[in-house]
Amino acid sequence: MNFLRKQLDKAGENFKPGSKFEKFAPALNAFDTFLFVPNHTTKKGAHIRDAIDLKRTMITVVIALLPALIYGIYNAGAQHFGQTGEAFTFMDAFIHGSWKIVPMIAVSYIVGLSIEFAFAVYRGHEVNEGYLVTGLLIPMIMPVDIPLWMVAVSTAFAVVIGKEAFGGTGMNILNPALTARAFAFFAYPTYMSGNEVWVSEASASKVDAITGETILGSLASGNEVSYSFMDMFNGAIPGSIAETSTLWILVGAAILIFTGIGSWRIIVSGFVGAAVMGLIFNAFSVNALMAFDWSNHLVVGGLAFGVVFMATDPVSAAQTTKGKWIYGFLIGFFGIMIRVFNPAYPEGIMLAILLFNVFAPTIDHYVIQANIKRRKKRLAAVQA
């Protein structure tokens, strides 16, 4: 590491102010801070002395994502071999899943970071580490066989329109990863929905048994599902790459909550809101989706993944304590509502989160105003 440190310091001489490559200093600095702890601190004014910084925060989120990602890679292969009827081992499934998913991750990082570097050089500021998480989230919420060029275009849209247009990391009002998925869904609907996109190579297979239909898609069509609650909870079902296993998503949630990075209030209230809406629908049971048990609604589709990893985004979520409870509850509540009432799109958590990303500042505003009014009333009572 000392050798690498010396080489970076030597290269940095060519990027100092007034030097030949001064304009490209943010790019070199990005590599430096990714590999080493920054060697500078604030010089004046109040600041917080803490061991945590943006890089460590993002790395912790990446670690929290790994259990769901690793299982998602395995499940992608397992669903493929399982529906073709071929015998397979864990390594067979994992290798097949890796062959499909690792290139998607590579494309997401290459395209996204290239754009981030370009904007950093153009604006003359440092490259932020926020894309470490976004670059992993984007492929994790995509169908396994989506073409790589679509991943690239969706990533570029999310970074440019969903993030850099607002000023970069910390300034965006929408979750960038969900912005990428929303763009892909509306721009390439045949690759993001239907019964042939959720199982690897289902559309190219000559085996009639392969349909790759998700549980929610089957229920929306009025069909019964044969999966047990534990199948759905463990994630042995078709779906987006890393959204199927509620078990491993909750492991990631525990990491986020234990480290203080993810808001447990948003996570808990998100599941509560979904449960309440599910119970309301169970009381009527007009169709298969409404009759689907409320507990099952919590463990299928993207609900758990969205509530844990998307709704808790500290930039686009509500900031006040009470606002987080309201924000999370409404996401879960409306997520199930959209899921059931929209037969063309039997999954609503993406749209619910994006909707309340927009309303998060409004929620915080009214929470703060309510606090101000209560304090004014107490002050008036004391003065009286």
From TrEMBL:
Q: Name one GO biological process term.
A: respiratory electron transport chain
Q: Which reaction does it catalyse?
A: a ubiquinone + n Na(+)(in) + NADH + H(+) = a ubiquinol + n Na(+)(out) + NAD(+)
Quote a single Gene Ontology cellular component term.
plasma membrane
TM regions (residue ranges): 57-74, 101-122, 134-161, 271-292, 298-318, 325-342, 348-368
Q: Which GO terms describe its molecular function?
A: FMN binding; oxidoreductase activity, acting on NAD(P)H, quinone or similar compound as acceptor
* EC numbers: 7.2.1.1
**What's its top-level EC category?**
translocase
Residue numbers carrying FMN phosphoryl threonine: 214
Where is the protein localized?
Cell membrane
Do you know which InterPro entries this protein is assigned to? Answer: NqrB, NqrB/RnfD
Keywords, in A-Z order: Cell inner membrane, Cell membrane, Flavoprotein, FMN, Ion transport, Membrane, NAD, Phosphoprotein, Sodium, Sodium transport, Translocase, Transmembrane, Transmembrane helix, Transport, Ubiquinone
Which segment of the chain is annotated as a signal peptide? none
Indicate the family of this protein. Answer: Belongs to the NqrB/RnfD family.
Record function comment: NQR complex catalyzes the reduction of ubiquinone-1 to ubiquinol by two successive reactions, coupled with the transport of Na(+) ions from the cytoplasm to the periplasm. NqrA to NqrE are probably involved in the second step, the conversion of ubisemiquinone to ubiquinol.
Listed under subunit, the entry gives: Composed of six subunits; NqrA, NqrB, NqrC, NqrD, NqrE and NqrF.
- What's the protein here called? Na(+)-translocating NADH-quinone reductase subunit B
Q: What is the organism of origin for this protein?
A: Spongiivirga citrea
